[in-house]
């Protein structure tokens, strides 16, 4: 084993670094997956930057719904950047070594960004609830001040809720193995190497997940039940269809996000004999939503597509103006 060990005495050792082995069972050809993963990462960064630029430059998009979408884009870029550079370094340069502080910092960042994404989905559900069920009060309720307070609350909430996970992981005794069958530092993957009892970590992660994402999902479901009840009371089928169409993009992303979270949790708890499945799902869950979110909104939101056209036309105008010869 390529362990780097340091001894506190002759009989007790503590590993000083972990080795991220990559995708279990396919180490010999996992580097071939680097190209699609790199393309997903570049598309996630490029598409989310485009959304941010479009929202900032188009006055028609200066609305709360698009403000939350802009915040979601920042969170998506943070989540993708937390894991993808290290994964690509493993695949391309065999840079598998990661220090303990870096590993625990990555655990914290992943939990933080995933929790914030869940929180932003809740904010967007609340925005749609007020817009459809309380349309006359919408301008006075969903203000810039509310968006700022909700964003700060989500950052602080997830910052504090995520803290116990890496702190408890850092308190475990890693005395023998240091090879993690993963591309990133996951809490369960890291603590599975501990020589002492890791049950407090598993219980803590489960409780915090239910407190954070569980409560978010419950409130999102409640919001959409109330939205559906309100829509069914509308006399016009056209008005009902228009109201539901404003929620369709949001619903697609929520279903994908929480379904994958549940599947990953179930495969970890079941301790499947195919370890590649939960590891691959874990990696894809951290990179596909940042790539998928902008595409879904771009395809299903007419105002956003119009904003993209304005940005592209403006950039083309500037380019032709610079290329035009001066008289």
Main pleated-sheet profile:
3 strands, mixed
Number of strands: 5
* Pattern of helices and strands: EEEHHEHHHHEHHHHH
- Backbone shape: globular
Q: Low-confidence segments, ≥5 residues, pLDDT <50?
A: 1-11
Helical coverage, percent range: over 70%
Mean pLDDT: 87
Number of helices: 11
Provide the structure class: mainly alpha
Provide the β-strand percentage band: 5-15%
Radius of gyration: 23 Å
In spatial order, strands of the major sheet run 4-3-5
Terminus-to-terminus distance? 72 Å
Record the SSE blueprint:
Blueprint: E1 5-9, E2 12-15, E3 17-20, H1 34-57, H2 64-93, E4 97-99, H3 100-133, H4 138-141, H5 144-162, H6 164-170, E5 179-180, H7 187-191, H8 199-232, H9 237-270, H10 276-300, H11 302-323
Helix pairs in contact: 1-2, 1-10, 1-11, 2-3, 2-10, 3-5, 3-6, 3-8, 3-9, 6-8, 8-9, 9-10
